[in-house]
Amino acid sequence: MDKQPPLRVMMLGLRGFPDVQGGIEKHAENLCPLLAGMGCDVEVIVRSPYQSHATGEVWKGVRFRPIWSPRSQKLETFVHSFLGVVYAAIRRPDILHIQAIGPALMTPLARLLGLRVIVTHHGPDYDRQKWGRLARFVLRMGEHVGMRYSNKRVAISNVILKLVQAKHRVACALIPNGVVPPLLPETRGVLEEFGLERGRYVLMVGRLVQEKRHLDLIDAFARAGIPGWKLVLVGAADHSNEYTELLHRTAQATSGVVMTGFQTGVALQELYAHAGFFVLPSSHEGLPIALLEALSYGLPVIASNIPANLEVALAHRHYFPLGNIEALASALREFSQQPCDEAARALVRESVSRKYDWKAVAVMTMQVYQDAIAVQPDLELETDEADFAHVSE
């Protein structure tokens, strides 16, 4: 019997990886090598200004195709997605997997060019504070056409799944983000570099954008008045703007606040491993990988009570009302006074690693690919109400 050729998967809609900042980038960095290990021929279209030349053309079985994009917040996604779809039309993969609703604007073009398209919905990006009216309209249109005209759809959380079903009346698979079981390094070079003491700093990890609400956390930290503690903000901005300039000024003017810039690898592992606790005060998330990573290290966490954070299903005391600075300051004081319970942290690490397993994510993603291949492309141009009824049960 002849051996079947590998499933050829092309991924589009991310800046690049490894070690490129962003939740979608982290998602692809963990998922793609596993798909390659399962026998897929995986090619990822990356944005050349972000992808490191040192990574090379192949990484952990994943091939990269750098394509130019302008380094512009307003144009880079649109231009790169268009060029990526044209490239995919030439290469003819079995599956074009588009990540996020912005790049999904190109779904109808990809379908017209005869490609099978999977779209993963990582969250309603039109709710992000950085976008103006026109950009929000374009993102809503991307969601609309991505959900309506893709062959199959994936949502990374129940919140997003319900949104897709309610707004677009289409079938959608639920496949969450995962976490990598952490390494717990003993070295302390990064702590010394930033003047940090083990177990005596509050950690936040995330891109420097408005919806992460770093300013809320800095304000709450200043009000909390917890002697001997520092606030560590890990992350950088893709594009400098008024928010990032204000954030840097505020951090410099607030005692105890440390901005480390973007960190990855062992440095980030050390910052997670030795933090006292983790805070995520965001107003917008999909299913936050940084929060899952913090839990995978067994860290106590405080998070805003937005639906995406609530979906992680922590105890009530771990949440505070979004934007309530006094409530957040009170939580910071409370958590700073709690002794470290290594046994409890070990249980959290085990639970999260079991619940959010990248290997299970890869298996579920492969099933979506196989389902898409099994259906003739011209049969799925319209919404399949039977499919929707099955998924809604």
Structure commentary:
This protein is 42% helix and 16% strand. The chain is an alpha/beta fold and 393 residues long. Strands 3-4-2-1-5-6-7-8 form an 8-stranded mixed β-sheet, sandwiched between helices. A 6-stranded parallel β-sheet has the order 11-10-9-12-13-14, with helices on both faces. Mean pLDDT is 92; it is low at 379-393.
Sheet of most strands: 8 strands, mixed
**What's the N-to-C terminus distance?**
40 Å
The low-confidence runs, each spanning 5 or more residues with pLDDT under 50, are: 379-393
Portion of residues in beta strands equals 15-25%
Overall shape: it is: globular
What keywords describe this structure?
393 residues; alpha/beta; six-stranded parallel beta sheet; 15 helices; disordered C terminus
Task: Give the topology, please.
Blueprint: E1 8-12, H1 23-37, E2 41-47, E3 58-59, E4 62-67, H2 76-91, E5 95-99, H3 107-112, E6 117-121, H4 133-149, E7 152-155, H5 158-168, E8 173-174, H6 189-193, E9 201-205, H7 214-224, E10 230-234, H8 242-253, E11 257-261, H9 265-273, E12 277-280, H10 289-296, E13 301-304, H11 307-310, E14 319-320, H12 325-336, H13 342-355, H14 358-374, H15 385-392
Parallel strand pairs: 1-2, 1-5, 2-4, 5-6, 6-7, 7-8, 9-10, 9-12, 10-11, 12-13, 13-14
Antiparallel strand pairs: 3-4
Helix pairs in contact: 1-14, 7-12
Question: Can you describe this structure in just a few lines?
Answer:
By secondary structure, the protein is of the alpha/beta class. The chain has helices at 23-37, 76-91, 107-112, 133-149, 158-168, 189-193, 214-224, 242-253, 265-273, 289-296, 307-310, 325-336, 342-355, 358-374, 385-392, and strands at residues 8-12, 41-47, 58-59, 62-67, 95-99, 117-121, 152-155, 173-174, 201-205, 230-234, 257-261, 277-280, 301-304, 319-320.
